[in-house]
């Protein structure tokens, strides 16, 4: 089964909405508690992004998570000296190097590894690997980026699934899956291990499970938002059930527009998770298929 890493940054986002810069009081919600719930629900790892501006997860969170989690800690970070030094000291099981811009709401695109030969990226990969940390590079499904990632000695790539997640038609979706599958195949051939993530949710994750050589999906926003209504353990279990059910057939690669809603396709179709028909309205809506 493909493994699930749960990105809990948004638990800290909610905390910072009230407690940014406040110390000496109990600050809720606590990402360490969240990680515990995620692990109890059966997820395979915890992912956090320590951003330069510390807008959600902070250094103390990472230290406490390192001491308390029982699965794998995957630390996302930009290639900046202070954060790389911090990772070297904390020793997460895995780091995922990502591009980072201050103005972005979330990581917008993959790393440009092709043009990184004059940057510190190759040295950073070597340095983190020397510290015994598995190194992953977050890249777009571009064969040149895959070759460059292998060239600088990464162990993993994480394929950026944001474009796939934003597709509107079956044709576009199939084209994105084709690109992701080609990138995964090439990566495997070059000795890289393959993860994927970004923008995945309860509707579109099944469509990505047919990718070859996929090991772990890192999913955050959709799991944390769903947890507001069903609780964190349940939202993780619902996602795990999708992984257990396995791949959906890949849609044909034609570029037709989504059909106009009709009487028969307008309502959400219910899915069954692990033999359990979803009955609650909120679950029904998050798991509704598009009707196409
Ligand atoms: N993988 C990487 C490298 C990311 O930067 C993010 C977002 O922090 C995710 C996965 C999770 O994305 P989402 O929150 O959209 O599920």
Globally, the shape reads: globular
- Give unreliable regions as ranges: 261-272, 274-292
Report the order of strands and helices: EHHEHEHEHEHEHHEEHHEEH
Annotation field: number of helices: 11
In angstroms, what separates the terminal alpha carbons? Answer: 27 Å
Oligomer: single chain
* Overall number of domains: 1
Please tell me the overall pLDDT: 88
The CATH homologous superfamily is termed Aldolase class I
User: And the CATH topology?
Assistant: TIM Barrel
DSSP, total strands:
10
Q: How much of the residues is beta strand, in percent?
A: 15-25%
- Amount of helix: 25-40%
Radius of gyration: 19 Å
Top CATH class: Alpha Beta
Q: From the 3D coordinates, which CATH architecture would you assign?
A: Alpha-Beta Barrel
List all distinct small molecules, including ions and cofactors, that are bound in this structure: pyridoxine-5'-phosphate
Q: What's this entry about, in short?
A:
The chain has 292 residues and is an alpha/beta fold. The chain has eleven helices and ten strands. It has one domain: TIM Barrel (Alpha-Beta Barrel), CATH 3.20.20.
Write the layout of secondary structure elements.
Layout: E1 3-7, H1 9-19, H2 31-40, E2 45-49, H3 59-68, E3 72-77, H4 81-90, E4 94-97, H5 121-130, E5 134-139, H6 143-151, E6 156-160, H7 162-165, H8 170-189, E7 193-197, E8 214-219, H9 221-230, H10 232-245, E9 272-273, E10 276-277, H11 281-286
Parallel strand pairs: 1-2, 1-8, 2-3, 3-4, 4-5, 5-6, 6-7, 7-8
Antiparallel strand pairs: 9-10
Residues 7, 9, 49, 76, 96, 98, 106-107, 138, 158, 197-200, 218-222 line the site of pyridoxine-5'-phosphate.
């Amino acid at each position: 089964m493909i493994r699930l890493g749960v990105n809990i940054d948004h638990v800290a986002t909610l905390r910072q909405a009230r407690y940014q810069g406040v110390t000496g009081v109990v600050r809720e919600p606590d990402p360490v508690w969240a990680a515990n719930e995620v692990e109890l629900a059966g997820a395979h790892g915890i992912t956090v992004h320590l951003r330069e501006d510390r807008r959600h997860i902070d250094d103390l969170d990472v230290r406490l998570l390192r001491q308390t989690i029982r699965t794998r800690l995957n630390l996302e970070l930009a290639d900046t000296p202070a954060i790389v030094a911090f990772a070297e000291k904390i020793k997460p099981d895995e780091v995922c190097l990502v591009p980072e811009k201050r103005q972005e709401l979330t990581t917008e695109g993959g790393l440009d590894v092709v043009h990184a030969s004059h940057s510190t990226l190759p040295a950073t990969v070597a340095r983190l690997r020397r510290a015994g940390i598995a190194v992953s590079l977050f890249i777009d499904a571009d064969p040149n980026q895959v070759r460059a990632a292998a060239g600088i000695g990464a162990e993993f790539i994480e394929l950026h699934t944001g474009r796939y997640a934003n597709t509107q038609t079956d044709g576009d979706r199939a084209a994105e899956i084709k690109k992701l599958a080609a990138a995964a195949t090439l990566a495997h051939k070059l000795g890289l291990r393959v993860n994927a993530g970004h923008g995945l949710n309860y509707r579109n994750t099944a469509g990505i499970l047919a990718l070859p050589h996929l090991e772990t999906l890192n999913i955050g926003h959709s799991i944390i938002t769903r947890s507001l209504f069903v609780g964190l353990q349940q939202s993780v279990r619902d996602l795990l059930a999708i992984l257990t059910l396995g791949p959906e057939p890949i849609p044909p690669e034609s570029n037709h527009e989504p059909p106009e809603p009709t009487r028969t396709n307008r309502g959400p179709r219910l899915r069954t998770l692990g033999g359990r028909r979803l009955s609650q309205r909120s679950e029904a809506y998050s798991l509704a298929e598009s009707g196409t």
